Amino acid sequence: xxxxxxxxxxxxxxxxxxxxxxxxxxxxxxxxxxxxxxxxxxxxxxxxxxxxxxxxxxxxxxxxxxxxxxxxxxxxxxxxxxxxxxxxxxxxxxxxxxxxxxxxxxxxxxxxxxxxxxxxxxxxxxxxxxxxxxxxxxxxxxxxxxxxxxxxxxxxxxxxxxxxxxxxxxxxxxxxxxxxxxxxxxxxxxxxxxxxxxxxxxxxxxxxxxxxxxxxx
Length: 217
Known about the structure:
By secondary structure, the chain is mainly β. The chain has helices spanning 15-23, 45-53, 116-119; strands at residues 3-9, 26-33, 36-44, 62-66, 69-80, 87-94, 100-110, 123-126, 130-136, 144-147, 156-158, 169-170, 178-183. The strands form three sheets. A six-stranded mixed barrel has the order 1-3-2-6-5-4. β2 (26-33) and β3 form a beta hairpin.
């Protein structure tokens, strides 16, 4: 089930108008794409920030009710004010049942208690917190599950071990990339990383949070 947001058509544009709207607790936004004219709207700051903080905002199809008319969209960007870190703009892309979307889908790990490696003190080292996939609107998953059952210290969990929904394919197709590894506690402090067979994806294990930038008004 998709999330929902209420919106209103915006007839005022420009930086001055946008600042006035924000003082009223509203966030300027735009709906574009699907060979239709862009639609300038406003959403409430409270509702929009709540949806963002829930997680998965940029990977979930949303039904936006614009003055009683439903628009199926996926958030493409949102912009935060750099100093005070509050929401100032959101971009939505129209989608249809035939649209093929490229989306970063969050990864969830399950059955940690069934991992012998973790039970013996191993550490789950997450290489990818999201996986970029291609999917239609109706097949787009909210998250991907990685099953840790039976995983031992030293194991690498690859995309080939993840059960993808029908019609969902990873955008990386040239290798069986790593999503996570089960590392021994001492391995986290080791400076000996010269294993010739090491997976190149493991070098990306540091989590980086990226805020995608939207349009300024």
